[in-house]
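New to this. Help decode both lines:
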Amino acid sequence: MTAHCARRAARGRRIAIVAAGFALSAGMAANAATAAQPAPQTGPPSDRQRQQTEAAGLRDYVVVRSSVDRSAIWIGDRFSFIVDVDCSHGTDILTDDLSRDRLRLDELDVLGMEETREDRGDGHIVYRFTYRLTTYSFEPATKRIGEMNLKYYVRRPGQRPEDIVPAGDVMVPGATVVVRSLLPDDMNFARYHSERPPVPRAAAFTMLQPIGIGLVIVSIVPAVLWMVALQRQWRHRRRRQSARQLRHDERASLDEVRALDVEAEAGRREAFDRLSALVRRHVSGAWGVSANGLTPAEIVSALSAQGNGEVSAEATLFLDTCEKARYGRPEELPSRGACLAAIDQAEQLIGLGRS
């Protein structure tokens, strides 16, 4: 029995050794087959992958900052929203992304825009965009300027604008501005009037009230007297010219008219013009009738109302003759003899009014 068991154990060991040999041979064959297979070949990166890699590397070369010059404003105040872009290592931006139409505003109005570009050399460019803004509304109290996407690209020699392909984009930070107001923020707790009852006026102030009213009335009297004195002084300055001075001026005016060249048409028209002014001035100075802006008929009516009907008809006829000579047709202009006769007639009219 013991010998039989020993034989079975020996036979089992032989089978295990054979199986292990087969397994080892199969493993070595698999490894050899795997090693014999060619290695998988990796192709070049695609254009999309290359662009993404390039954009990730260039994003650090485009630095964008934004700010406002005032953090709080009143209604109608102007303030500036400023965007600074720093491009280096040959990068540049599409400025159309920062046009005034691309602004994302919350109840804000654009008044104007300024753009500057500074080329500092060696592929370094600095931009500044200044937006002039304002608001005319209270709500909302906090006005917001939204973020914007700004595309950038790499500048290449000879590149045309239509051939530009953006390499990526960066975010332009937004900003906020608060609208000031004199009203309290919480209207539920606003107190516009004092809740305390009015304090009664002291007895002394009650007695002084009629005294103050009386002083005001008394102070009006000197002012009225002063105005009357000024009016009298003004009337005194507007007194009529003295008769002696009036005669002297009229004589000088007649001498000037006689010195005119009445042979020429222009001289006769000027003579009649001066004679008309002389008679009107005499009527104003001698009888107190303001004749400068009156027609001949109105002057006669004014003279008749003052009892000077004696000169009414002659003055009317003379002034009518002067008006026709001044404004009539050339063929209706009086002759040289008629002009000299008019000068004598004016002297007679003036003589009638002398005292």
Observations:
- The first helix runs from residue 2 to 36.
- Residues 39-43 have pLDDT under 50 and may be disordered.
- Strands lie at 62-68, 72-73, 79-87, 91-93, 109-121, 124-134, 142-145, 148-154, 168-172, 175-179.
